[in-house]
Each structure stands twice: as structure tokens, then as C-alpha cells.
Write a structure and sequence with these properties.
This protein is mainly α. It has helices at residues 2-9, 34-54, 66-83, 95-108, 114-121, 149-152, and strands spanning 162-167, 170-175, 180-185. The chain has a 3-stranded antiparallel β-sheet with strand order 1-2-3, with no helix packed on it. The model is unreliable at 1-26 (pLDDT under 50).
């Protein structure tokens, strides 16, 4: 389902994931940690809800054109919002999870000029200054780049319905097929120190 969306929407494929910094062995956070266990359970529960609602809709692969694809996408997003109307920031990125993610990302970007790092990510896109993502917003089209591999390799794996994205210093959980932001971790990318 996801691959058709990427092809039709013109979003770059897997090769652009290989934007990275440095090399060497990396370790993902230990999923057995109780906070990360909760993160895994909550992303899995969201993915199960996504699949349940998607089963009631025409498959995205059946969309004859972009308009049909966007209609199905909007219905999926609407169904998810209706099934979980009280979703809010921090439901998945709980305070304990947020602390682990921020620490993991800070370690991955240790010694990196984060302003230059973010500027490079938006090199081909026109970022909207001051934009603040919110749960259940659509993911903005100007922010369609992938998360660099230097971070992806260190973050917990996600169900196939969800991807990580960055908007300014925030880490986003994005439901690709519904084009829905499902949680936001503000200040995930460290701010430069003076």
C-alpha cells in the first residue's frame, strides 16, 4: 500500500534514506526497556486500528488516479480520527519515551551543527518558518524528506503503516497512507548551544 502512495505522490524512495553522517556500528535503543515497550505497544495498537479502518475502504492500490487516492486517504484519516477522537501529543511519545528518544538523538548527532544539519535537510524544500505540527494534522507537502539514516538506525523500528519524519526540531510519527501526524516529539533535535 505504501509503495503505491510514494510512486503516485512523487515522494523519493528508499535511496534517499541513505542521507547520513559518518559510519560505524550503531545500536538501537533496547526495546525491552519498559518505556520503549510501551512505545512499541502503542505504535502496534495504532497500526492495528489503521488496518481495521483500511479494510473498510477501497485499497489504495485500486485508486485509478491521484484524486481517487487522495479521497481514499482522506477517508482513512477521517476514520482514524473518528475511532480515536481524543488522541493528543504524548500518547505515543510519553514523557519517559521522549527522554529516551531525545537522548538517543543527541548521542547520534553529537558534534554535529544541528542548524546546518536541518538546513541541509530542507535544501530542496521551502520550509514554513514557525510551523508547529499537531496530532491529526496532515503532513505538509513541503516537508516530505525522509529522516537521515544516522538517526533511523538508532530509533526503534515502527510498524509499516508509520514512519518517522522531521519538521524543524520536532520528530514526527506519520501515518503514510492516511497522511496523518499521529504524534509529535518537540525539541527532538538538540538546539545549538552558544
Amino acid at each position: 500500500m505504501t509503495s503505491l502512495f510514494f510512486r503516485l505522490a512523487g515522494i523519493a524512495g528508499l535511496s534517499s534514506l541513505l542521507v547520513g553522517l559518518g559510519g560505524g556500528a550503531v545500536e538501537r535503543p533496547v526495546v525491552g526497556h519498559s518505556a520503549l515497550g510501551t512505545f512499541g505497544e502503542r505504535t502496534a495498537a495504532y497500526a492495528a486500528l489503521h488496518r481495521k479502518i483500511a479494510q473498510t475502504l477501497p485499497p489504495l492500490e485500486a485508486a485509478e488516479n491521484l484524486h481517487a487516492l487522495y479521497r481514499t486517504q482522506a477517508k482513512l484519516a477521517s476514520g482514524i480520527r473518528a475511532a480515536s477522537p481524543h488522541a493528543q501529543q504524548g500518547d505515543i511519545f510519553t514523557p519517559a519515551v521522549a527522554e529516551i528518544f531525545r537522548s538517543t538523538i543527541a548521542t547520534a548527532l553529537s558534534g554535529v551543527d544541528t542548524d546546518a544539519f536541518l538546513r541541509d535537510l530542507y535544501e530542496d524544500q521551502e520550509a514554513v518558518p514557525g510551523f508547529r505540527p499537531h496530532v491529526y494534522d496532515s503532513y505538509p507537502r513541503w516537508a516530505t524528506h525522509e529522516v537521515p539514516i544516522v538517526l533511523l538506525l538508532r530509533l526503534p523500528l515502527l510498524p509499516e503503516e508509520i514512519e518517522y519524519r522531521l519538521i524543524d526540531h520536532s520528530l514526527i510519527l506519520w501515518d503514510v497512507d492516511a497522511n496523518l501526524i499521529i504524534d509529535v516529539l518537540p525539541d527532538a533535535i538538540p538546539w545549538p548551544t552558544s
